[in-house]
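re: ur msg from earlier - yeah i can do the 4LM complex, just paste it... oh wait u already did. ok heres what im feeding in:
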Amino acid sequence: MWESKNIETNTIHGGKKSQGEHGPLSTPIYQTSTFVFEDVQQGADRFAGEAQGHIYSRLGNPTVDELEARMAVLEETESAAAFGSGMGAVSAAIFALLKAGDHLITSHRLYGCTFALFNHQLPALGIQVSFVDLADAQAVRAAIQPNTKVIYGETPINPCLTVINLDSIAAIGQEHGIITVIDNTFMSPILQRPATHGIDLVLHSATKYLNGHGDVVAGILCGPSALIDHIKMTTRKDMGAVMSPHDAWLVIRGLKTLHLRVQRHSENAQLVAEHLQDHSAIEKVYYPGLPDHPGYRLLSTQMHGAGGVMAFELKCSFEQAVAFINQLKMCKRAVSLGDAETLIQHPASMTHSTYAPEELAEAGISRTLIRLAVGLENAEDIMADLDQALASIL
Ligand code: 4LM
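and the outut:
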C-alpha cells in the first residue's frame, strides 16, 4: 500500500493493494457470497479468528475491504467499515454503542431518517435521547448525564448548513469519556476530516459525493480499529447492512475523481449562492461560503471549502415556491446530493417529511425552504435555469 501527504494523490492510490495475479489497474470485483476452505480446520480457524482469510461476504469481502482501506486513508483513521446505505452505517454505529438505559446527545437538526431513528426507534427501545443545539457547547455540556454514551451530529447540517465546531465537540467527548460521531457526508474528506479534530467515528452516506454518480446507495464509518472491528463483528454482522462488492467497486471508481468533483461542486455552489443572494426574489440563502452565514468563520479552521449544497428561502407563497421548482428545465427535481446533475428538492415535504410541523419549525425548515445540490454543469447554465424559473413565478 502507498500513501502520500496529499489527498489528491490518496484519492487515487491511497489504500490500494497490489492485485496479485494479472496485475489489473482497476480493483477486481469479487462477486462472491462465500469463500472455499481447504479443509474443516481452516474454516474453524477462520471463524475463531485464529487464521486470516475470508469466510462469507457479510463478514468481509476483498473488494469491500479495499474501499474500507481507501476510506481510512482519506479520513486519516486507523480503519473503516462499509455498509449497504448511509442509514445502515448510522444504525450499526448507534446500536453497537447504545443499549437500553443509555443516553444519546444529538441535534434536532439532522437528515430526516436519522432524526426518525433517534426520535422514534431509539426511545421505543429504552434509549434516552436529548436534542440540543450542538453549535452551543454550553448546551451540550448541560445535557450530559452519567449514562451519556454518544454525541452524534452532522456538520454542515442537512438542509440549512448549520456548522458545528468539531474541536469543541471532540473536547467535550474526551473530557467525559463519551464517544463522538460526526456525519461528514456534506463535506467529504476533501473538505473536512473530523478525526483530525479528535472526533471518534466519521460517517458518510457514500451514496453522495464519495460515489458521485447517482448509481449506488451505500455508507461508510471510519474510526479507530477497536471500535470499527467491534461494529463489524456485532451490528454489521448480525443486522446485516453490508455493502455489495459491485457497489464497493463503483464507490472506489468514484473516489478517483472525488477531489476534482468536490472542488468543482464548491466553486459552482459559491457562484450560485452569490448570484441567488443578490436576486430580488430571494429572501435568504443558507451557504457557509457566504460571509453572513454563522458557519463562515469556521471555514478557515475546520473546512477547506463550503461544499456543493445550499438552501434558500424565496420571497413568495408556498404555491409559488412549488411552481418555481416545477418550472426548472435543466436542474432535476430529486432528493440526494453530490451527483454530477444539479438536484433540487423541497425538504419539508421530502427529505425532512419525517419531522412533525412543530419539529420542522424548531429545525428552521419552513414550507418555502428549498435545497439545491449544485452539480458539475457550467455554473452559468445552472444560474440561467434558476433565473428563468424565478422569472416565471414573479
Ligand atoms: C438527502 N440524505 O438528503 P443513505 N446522512 C446524511 C444524509 O444526507 C443522508 C444519509 C445520512 C438524503 C437522501 C435522500 C447527512 C441521506 C442517509 O440515503 O441511507 O445512503 O444516507 O437527499
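cool cool. The radius of gyration is 21 Å. ping me if u need the other ligands too
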